[in-house]
């Protein structure tokens, strides 16, 4: 039914308008007690065998919503109602900003992909912090907060901008993510170079510890799939050196190789997400796990369309898995189908628990080498 609705309605709408329309429906359902109870009962069944411990947190399962969908923390309960085990909000910047001029979101339907150049459009860290502070949760879920650089802030002053967001938001974050990998903020990806990343991550870590003294807020970094292999290794080594809690692999790509979609849309600037990102994101994840093992938590994201994709990320080393673009194409049953499929794959695997499956393929390959 959703696919029919997508083809008849959403496919004909401007993608950004369709996003906000669906967003309003989700928020409305979450605010209606009877409706949200019914929806959650069907779309968010819990599987005991999928219970996950990661980053010192206990979650219903390993599958969450990637950053970018709920930029301003307005639909956390709604996304939990749809079955996501954790919700990563943002990217939030130090100051409010409108993002890039529209049109800035494009569908590549034959590829089940999106191109976006949103440009971190959000209400800013002060407004988002106030919203999180006043939140009265309906569903218990893990909330990650993804922070990025304000566009007008010079690259040399990036650390101070991230620290500002950290000081405002860390208290409300179950975990905090430093995003240095979006292609839509000029100069942002330059911060992935270890000589820039080390002081930035150290400053954010210090700010989080100074701001929240009652607990340690887990800190992760999100990297791009377009990094060279040696740069991936360098980020992995830096994460271990600094005692980071995790790495999210990966953000969107600027490459356009192997697309089925034709026409001018494929030449739109911005980050490509969805199915075409699958193989590279999986490759990056395997490389990271081979480098860091279980010393830090890895989060797999990029091109996860179904339970098999999620299962392959777990076998490649991901403790947590995230989706976004496929949600647009699959609709409200997306998380439900992944949970059901993961439970079935675990049952039919040689692994006693989901934790046992993490990185199993990479370890097996290393043992055989």
Distance linking N and C termini: 48 Å
Order of helices and strands: HHHEEEHEEEHEHEHEHEEHEHEHHHH
Low-confidence stretches: none
Number of strands: 13
Largest sheet: 8 strands, parallel, barrel
Portion in strands: 15-25%
Shape summary: globular
Sheet with most strands: strand arrangement = 3-4-7-8-9-10-12-13
Supply the number of helical segments.
14
Give the class from helix and strand content and strand pairing. Answer: alpha/beta
Helix content: 40-55%
**Average pLDDT level:** 96
Rg calculated over all Cα atoms: 19 Å
Would you write up a description of this structure?
The chain is of the alpha/beta class. Helices cover 41% and strands 16% of the residues. It has 14 helices and 13 strands. The strands form 3 sheets. An 8-stranded parallel beta barrel has the order 3-4-7-8-9-10-12-13, surrounded by 6 helices. A 3-stranded antiparallel β-sheet has the order 5-6-11, with no helix packed on it. Strands 1-2 form a two-stranded antiparallel sheet. Helix 4 links the parallel strand 3 and strand 4. The longest helix has 18 residues. The radius of gyration is 19 Å and the shape is globular. The relative contact order is 0.14.
